[in-house]
Write a structure and sequence with these properties.
36% strand; Immunoglobulin-like; 26% helix; 32 strands; alpha+beta
Length: 487
């Protein structure tokens, strides 16, 4: 057998006899002669920018004669591709409106006259020949299809998608996942091919080729795995039993080791756990629960083999005792302390306000007292001046006896005024006594022009009632001077 080696990225011979070669400069190299006798190739550019570095990765012709080109920067469909007289022609369609098809397209798989599939870095896409609809997927049935490299369908209609992290087998009910832990040479799947005659799937990986018997794969039932607790550590203490444990406040960091025994592929075991109603999954065979608050805990741990079902859980129950600062006694004491502190603050504020009000009241009283003293100081000179005028009048009128009586009464009145001059408030009885002396003086001066008499109510005790100093005398004086003397 003689082989003709071609140093190109990809190759396709069309139904019209054209030889298509992929390049790295955004074009197809076209010839109408076989490789061994072709002397010249002609470029058909896939995008307008002819200098763009855009590697052609795969070339496939469908049953309608359309050419599908997988590129490093997306997908291109070429229709009516021709080579005439050294010139190429054809219509191009790019699919940049689809995010999956605007990145690297790694492979193309033609599903007869029904669909054509595309594996890309961001997922997969499929074109339906009957409807002309293009659909793209980043995941199917929760299977992450990013970094897809290849795809194919088996005789049961299941979609096999190779990715750089493993192989997905997808049907309407979900998916199964195969990788190095389940027997493949590598997680990096590069190519797939299904042989319907032998019912075998050839899987090309970065570490070699694997051939999977699909019939045996369909009949394989993964074991149901049960979990065993192999160790539990709380703080620095190691426990040998795993139910109703009592942990001290300083043992709130809990480590649980467990195992789901799977001798055929031990590295493919998956675990999930539920701690007080909250679910989480892990690929590790241990849990590190740190800084757990005080309380009661129930931990359930499940295991399953890859593509299997969850087995019977292992159960761990434990209680972490509260520390002093987490105890009910501390919380009650703290609450009472806060209440007491609030009470004393309120009481202090009230006391402060009362003292402030009291000081303000005392200041007001002192100001009023000073005002009365000032008023008395103004009244006394005024009264003395008027009284001396009256004495002068009696002497000038040769009323010596009346003058002597007037001076004696005036002396008594001035003495009382001097005794009470520094007092803001005096007894009502003292004011009445002083008022009588004043009226006697005016009676001596004015004679029979007026008569006077002082009355106090039956409910008024002059010996206990305090009134402002000199509060009444000015009114009486004004009444006499403006009501009698000036009339």
């Amino acid at each position: 057998m003689k082989l003709n080696l071609v140093n190109r990225t990809s190759f396709c011979k069309t139904s019209k006899g054209l030889y298509l070669f992929g390049s790295i400069i955004n074009s197809l190299l076209i010839s109408d002669k076989p490789v061994k006798i072709a002397k010249e190739y002609f470029n058909f550019y896939l995008e307008d920018n002819r200098d763009k570095l855009n590697r052609v990765i795969d070339i496939v012709e469908d049953f309608e004669g359309n050419i599908w080109v997988a590129m490093g920067m997306g997908l291109c469909k070429v229709t009516n591709l021709k080579l005439e007289d050294g010139r190429t022609s054809g219509e191009r369609k790019l699919y940049h409106e689809y995010p999956v098809l605007s990145t690297r397209i790694n492979s193309i798989w033609l599903e007869g006259k029904q669909n054509i599939w595309f594996a890309a870095d961001k997922g997969i896409a499929v074109y339906d020949f009957k409807t002309g609809e293009m659909r793209s997927y980043t995941e199917i049935n929760e299977a992450d299809l990013s970094s897809s490299t290849s795809l194919v369908k088996d005789d049961q209609g299941r979609l096999w998608v190779g990715t750089m992290k493993g192989l997905f087998v997808i049907d309407k009910d979900g998916f199964k996942f195969l990788d190095r832990k389940t027997g493949l040479p590598s997680n990096e799947i590069l190519s797939l091919d299904f042989d319907s005659k032998t019912n075998e799937m050839a899987i090309g990986t970065s570490a070699g080729l694997a051939v999977l018997n699909v019939k045996k794969f369909n009949n394989y039932l993964p074991l149901t795995l049960n979990v065993m607790i192999t160790g539990l550590k709380g703080g620095d203490s190691v426990f040998t039993r795993f139910d109703n444990l009592i942990l001290q406040p300083d043992q709130q960091n809990v480590t649980v080791n467990f195992a789901g025994l799977n001798f055929s592929s031990p590295g493919s075991v998956l675990y999930k756990y539920k701690l007080n109603g909250e679910w989480a999954e892990t690929g590790n065979d241990f849990l590190s629960l740190t800084s757990l608050p005080a309380g009661e805990y129930e931990l359930q741990i499940f295991a399953k083999a890859r593509n299997g079902v969850w087995g019977r859980p292992a159960l761990v129950t434990f209680t972490i005792l509260p520390g002093f600062f987490q105890s009910t006694v501390f919380r009650v004491a703290l609450f009472l302390l806060i209440v007491a502190l609030i009470f004393f603050i309120i009481k202090w504020r009230i006391k402060l306000q009362v003292e402030k009000s009291k000081a303000q009241l005392e200041l007001t009283e002192r100001i009023n007292q000073l005002k009365h003293q000032a008023l008395s100081a103004m009244m006394n000179p005024h009264f003395v001046f008027n009284s001396l005028n009256s004495v002068q009048y009696l002497i000038n009128s040769n009323k010596n006896e009346e003058a002597n009586n007037y001076i004696a009464t005036m002396a008594s009145l001035m003495r009382k005024n001097l005794e009470t001059a520094g007092s803001g408030f005096i007894l009502l009885s003292e004011e009445i006594s002083r008022l009588k002396l004043y009226l006697d003086l005016e009676k001596l001066r004015l004679g029979d022009k007026f008569v006077w008499e002082i009355y106090t109510g039956n409910d008024v005790d002059p010996e206990h009632v305090m009134i402002p100093n000199m509060i009444i005398q000015p009114f009486v004086e004004n009444s006499l001077w403006h009501g009698i003397i000036e009339s």
